[in-house]
């Protein structure tokens, strides 16, 4: 597991403690049933949101949790048929939902976790489903289809042989069955309840619970960690609120979010009708979320969450430019940020990047010619870099960061100029240009690796050896990095944001 620690190398969350407490919580719930269907909300692995707001959280913490329980646990993956048909993309990883299913299967297998099957939900003979199922079956993965239940979620319709009973039963053999999917609206809840119905029809005492990390039920409603959840789901319009069902039943105020609270009466009624008794009195009681108990430095996590709230606003601005979200989402994100009293430049990297841009040639900066980046390096502080005729801004700031982290003199060049020029000329010719073109981050790192292999004692080798130290560093750019650069920045584990401005293709000479 690789930690994402964006707050000066300090830890605010104890992943080991979380794994201990969360696994115990799940096993305690399992003791009540012969089989527990556990719906998992949010990211099962690569949970970068949690990693950013809880310094010390392992992005694959849930995966490690299930690895611990592997002897008692298996997985069902649910994916909505229309997500396949519309080639829906998981924004944080930049891959399609279809690809993500195969990625998850590989990840589970590598960690010794059984996959019971993949179910395509709300299936209506979409053309893209058959080839997807064929690919899965060639890999030995069982596949199932569930059609939409007319009248769902009416309990009298759903809890019947014509409702849940009409759906394919997914064969499982272990006491804990995790229902997950590549994104929201995958049909996880209906799949879980369908399975519980089938189990009870077979005289198996089965239950349902939900594992969803955010909002954190035992943190205050206005805690920055919980508000960061609202910022992360501004495109969905989610908001946090006090669980009124729990307060009425137990007189205690716990936090939940609107969709779970609104859906609870129906879910509770469905479970009651299936199981013949009242199961839960509140959506909070339905959950098995122990994440709040592993926060060991609240002030640090508050600071990280505030940074994330601001980062989300920048991110939605970029997404709006490409049409992936509407302007209402950007405005909602801005209201959340303003409500917390967070300024755009509260993060030091934003203030530094914008400050240097102003110090460049103002008239040219308006045209978008200059791109400035800033990075916050623990124990060193914020440093800045900019684009040039040789490098994209992301390339320049990454090289500069590596030099600082490796203790290399600022006077020394990391990459030999002849190699940089040769790659730039080749890149220019490939694009039909007679002049050299500046190097993107992937080309820069490739040149770094080649140069390092030629001399193990070189500056390149020293920089390449500490590439993992970039993980968790916070960066900001005054314009949008290219798609290729952004992908590499994410792969390096860099927590970056940018102003929602497109950069010019022109570059000034490197300073």
Automatic annotation (TrEMBL):
Protein name, per record: UPF0371 protein FN1121
InterPro entries, per database record: DUF1846_C, DUF1846_N
Residue ranges of domain DUF1846 in the record: 11-338, 347-506
